[in-house]
Structures are given as structure tokens and as C-alpha cells.
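SAMPLE LOG
Freezer: B-3
Tube label: C17
Construct: single chain, 225 aa
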Amino acid sequence: MGDPAAIRAFFNRVGPWFYTFFFALLGYRASLRYFLRLNHQRLGLRRGMRILDAGIGTGFLAVNLLREAPVPLIITGLDFSTGMFAGLERWLQRLGLRERVRLQQGDIRKMPFRSETFDLVVSSAAMEYLPEVEEGIAECGRVLRPGGKFMMISTRRSFMGRLIALLWRNSTLDPAHIRQCMHRAGIRHIERLRFPWYFPHVNGWGMILLGRKTPRPDAEVLELA
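STRUCTURE (predicted):
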């Protein structure tokens, strides 16, 4: 799609209910739950940490993070679609999680947060809507503190990915290119993870990359002490 105004209009018009129904039917919501259940230690989840869901949408990732974390969490959710926010707020109220998600309207490419604000930044099915994915990843790197982690889940360049992209008007992304963008944003030690083996269809179109922002030299000394 490319044009941010057109993207916003598309999601406001389609509404969160169909988006939620489609990806729940596809098994994406369930796959996130089991993925996070198996991998929450990799994210370093702990009480009091500052977490950003960049492009929170209807909240699949944020809700499963809250449910599967071993400690209570508070998540900041950023999105520029008022239609998505409306659906997300209703869902959070039903789940009793509204007080644990702080919603902020804004553009992933120019976030309304200070640099080095968050301990963990996650993004799911959002970056592939940007005209230039590197802009969004660079902003995620900017707001991430040194030593913090960044996890990106997106539609990869595959047969199934292209089918989904036709319906949802998004791009498909090349993992090698995303790694390069993460490196330029100061994010290293990048792992490519997979959804549990019992969701092969989700692995057919989705990819998960997890990296860590390079700590400052003085922080590395403290960690080794």
C-alpha cells in the first residue's frame, strides 16, 4: 500500500473486528500464545520493565504477553488507527486488562517517546505497512535502551506471505534485509525464532527476529563485574 494516509483509512474502514476474526481463524492469535509461553525467558520479562508494542493494532501480541508473562506487566501500545484502538479497548475491557495497557496514538516512523525509553520493544504485523521498513526499525532502535531487546514479527517473502499480502495490502519482507536494518539500528545478536512446530502454516508466512541493542561500553563492564 505504501501511503500512510491510505493505510490508516484502510484499517479504520475495515475495522478491527474483521482483522481480529481473520487472524484468529488463521491461528495467529493461538500461535502467539504458545510461542510466548515457550520463549518468555528470551525476552527477559521482569516486573517493572518498560515495554512498547509498536503498531499494537488489535492487541494479539500485547494481550498474550500480559497473559503468559511470569510477572505482572504494563505495556505501552502505539498505533495510528483510531479504528484499531476502538476495537482493542473493547477487547481489553472484556479481558480485564485495560489498566495494564497504555495507549498512545502515533506513527511508528516518528514515535512520541524520548530516546532510550523502553527495555523491550515488540512489533507484530506492522512494519510491512511502512513505505520504508528501515524507518520503523530505526525508530524502535532509538527508543530502546542499550541492552534492551527488540522482537519483530512480520510477513515474510514466501508463497503464503504473498497470499496474505494480497488481502491485507501489505509488503512481504526479506529476513536478510530486516537483519541489515536491525544492525544499522544498533541491534545485534539477532536470532531467527519459529512458532511452535504445531503451527506449520504460521511458519509458512510469518517470521520472528529477536535482537539486543548494543550496550554502552561502561554498561558491559558493569555486567561483567
